[in-house]
Amino acid sequence: MKYLSLYLIGLIFGTGISVSGMANPAKVLNFFDVAGTWDPSLAFVMGGAVIVTFIGYRFVLRRPMPAMADAFHLPTSRAIDARLLGGSAVFGIGWGIAGFCPGGALPALGTLDAPVFIFVGASIAGILLARGITAARSPRTATA
Fold first, then answer.
1. Which residues are listed as membrane-spanning (predicted)?
2. Cα separation of 9 and 89, whole Å?
3. So where are the chain's domains?
4. Lowest mean pLDDT: which of 23-32, 74-83, 134-143?
5. Measured CA distances, 18 to 97, 103, 104 (Å)
6. For helices 41-60 and 25-32, what crossing angle results, to 10°?
7. pLDDT per residue over 59-101, tens digit each?
8. Distances (CA, A) of 73 to 38, 51, 61, 70, 100
9. SS3 for 53-93, per residue?
10. pTM for the whole thing?
């Protein structure tokens, strides 16, 4: 049941991304082109997502536990540190250059366009690189 729910949630998300046009990198890049062919529709999509998330979290977090997990896994740190700023900058720069974020690129894989596969491959490589750097920099713990 858990995997069916995950599939349906992903299907709804991907459909929303596709219907809103956010899987089209040209539409996303036009949002960033404020001095040229600016398209404000991305702001409305994001605003709608923020409103739905805000309301949804109010309902969900009133529950004693998630429907399909033992506990909520919420961030505990509120620190704005170099990792957060660096990751945000890399995400934003990549989004501005490619016109894709991971949420928009995954549904766009269905287009079979090579740039989408290159972006997803580069995203996966970046994730693996970041994990490797984090693992190399973290203090080693002794195992008994």
1. 41-61, 82-106, 112-130
2. 28
3. 2-137
4. 134-143
5. 20, 10, 8
6. 100
7. 999 999 998 889 999 889 899 999 899 989 988 888 888 888 8
8. 38, 21, 11, 9, 27
9. HHHHHHHHCCCCCCCCCCCCCCCCCCCCCHHHHHHHHHHHH
10. 0.72
